[in-house]
């Protein structure tokens, strides 16, 4: 199918998929005002194209299947529920054999409930999606658990909660503790005198900001085994109280970080070169997005800093107030952190270590609202 055969644009539809644009095209764009269902692959533009874009105003699905009662979702990535059915039960593939698998379920005017079973979903063996509540649900398998990536009109079906809390109130030489999961952390390279120092709301940890991997201070939590993925998050709120000092290097200084280079789930940093906060995430296609603040932090001053991903946008807050512009993530699934731990105030590589004091580190598995972030800053939200 040639939409325009004049050397500037081309659309080809065949058994292998849909390709729009060619190597010599100045630009290639695809606009769809209705719904798009594609069984093969979709490619817009080329490596030589200065600009290319895909815009779908309706919904889209790849490799889809319409399903009815008692169907096992073991073949495709996208499923549409049969509108002629009442209540239906869908079986997810066993979680222990589906690591990294992604599934999206969309309702088609279904009058009854949809119950998902067959694998551990969040904290339960099954999940019921009430009639009239859910229009779309996306899940991903991480650490042998099906986790909800994005949901629409389904806020009542998942436990939105705090998933990590380290007050850092321990006196030397006691280890830091995640009070939510009972995971014992490690003070890496930290002198006893720097543990349990006076902080913003009690005691905290004083990090030296040294770049050397063998001497630079940071804190790490490494659950390992079956609990390895408990700090992998899709939606999140990252919260910390920090007292930055003048940096000893020009790299990003990690406040909270989960994952390595290709498995960077999320990274919340204070950039030593401009003293602005940055929030960065990596998606499953290995693309990345980040947002930053306009405010420049002043060394020698306490700040409450928060990074939020609510499933739609990345947003940073300083002392309870949104700072910088939100960045839209398009509801895409984030990569998981692999075998890397949750690092606080630096990382094992030694090039992202923070020079300053840290206190009251928290993670939530959902995006707090602006009002909730303000309450968190004021100390009235748990």
Describe the 3D structure.
- This protein is mostly beta strands and 382 residues long.
- The strands form 8 sheets. Strands 17, 21, 22, 24, 29, 30, 31 and 33 form an 8-stranded antiparallel beta sheet that branches. The chain has a 7-stranded antiparallel beta sheet with strand order 20-23-32-25-26-27-28, with no helix packed on it. A 5-stranded mixed beta sheet has the order 8-10-12-15-16, with no helix packed on it.
- Helix content is 2%, strand content 43%.
- The chain has 1 helix and 33 strands.
- The N terminus is likely disordered.
- A hairpin with a 2-residue loop joins strand 30 and strand 31.
- The protein has 3 domains: 50 residues, no CATH class; 90 residues, gp9 (Jelly Rolls, Sandwich), CATH 2.60.120.640; 217 residues, Jelly Rolls (Sandwich), CATH 2.60.120.200.
Main attributes of the structure:
about 375 residues, mainly beta, Jelly Rolls, eight-stranded antiparallel beta sheet, seven-stranded antiparallel beta sheet, about 0% helix, elongated
């Amino acid at each position: 199918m040639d939409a325009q055969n004049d050397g500037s644009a081309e659309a080809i539809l065949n058994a292998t998929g849909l390709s729009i644009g060619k190597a010599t095209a100045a630009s290639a764009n695809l606009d769809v005002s209705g719904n798009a269902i594609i069984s093969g692959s979709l490619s817009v533009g080329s490596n030589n194209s200065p600009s290319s874009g895909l815009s779908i105003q309706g919904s889209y699905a790849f490799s889809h299947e319409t399903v009815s009662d008692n169907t096992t979702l073991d073949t495709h990535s996208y499923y549409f529920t049969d509108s002629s059915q009442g209540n239906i039960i869908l079986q997810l593939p066993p979680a222990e054999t589906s690591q990294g698998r992604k599934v999206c379920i969309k309702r088609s005017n279904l009058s009854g409930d949809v119950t998902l079973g067959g694998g551990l979903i969040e904290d339960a063996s099954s999940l019921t999606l009430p009639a009239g509540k859910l229009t779309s649900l996306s899940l991903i398998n991480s650490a042998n658990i099906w986790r909800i990536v994005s949901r629409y009109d389904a806020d009542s079906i998942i436990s939105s909660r705090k998933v990590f809390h380290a007050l850092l109130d321990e006196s030397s030489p006691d280890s830091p503790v995640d009070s939510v999961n009972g995971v014992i952390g490690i003070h890496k390279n930290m002198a006893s005198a720097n543990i349990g120092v006076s902080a913003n709301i009690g005691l905290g940890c004083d990090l030296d900001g040294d770049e050397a991997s063998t001497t630079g201070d940071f804190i790490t939590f490494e659950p390992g085994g079956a609990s390895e993925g408990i700090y992998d998050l899709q939606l999140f709120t990252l919260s910390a109280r920090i007292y930055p000092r003048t940096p000893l290097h020009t790299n990003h200084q990690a406040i909270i970080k989960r994952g390595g280079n290709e498995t960077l789930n999320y990274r919340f940093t204070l950039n030593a070169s401009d003293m602005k906060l940055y929030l960065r995430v990596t998606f499953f296609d290995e693309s990345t997005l980040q947002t930053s603040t306009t405010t420049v932090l002043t060394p020698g001053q306490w700040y409450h800093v928060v990074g939020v991903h609510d499933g739609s946008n990345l947003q940073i807050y300083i002392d309870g107030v949104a700072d910088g512009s939100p960045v839209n993530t398009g509801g895409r699934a984030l990569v998981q952190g692999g075998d890397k731990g949750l690092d606080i105030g630096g990382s094992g590589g030694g090039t992202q270590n923070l020079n300053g004091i840290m206190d009251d580190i928290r993670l939530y598995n959902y995006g707090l609202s602006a009002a909730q972030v303000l309450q968190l800053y004021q100390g009235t939200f748990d």
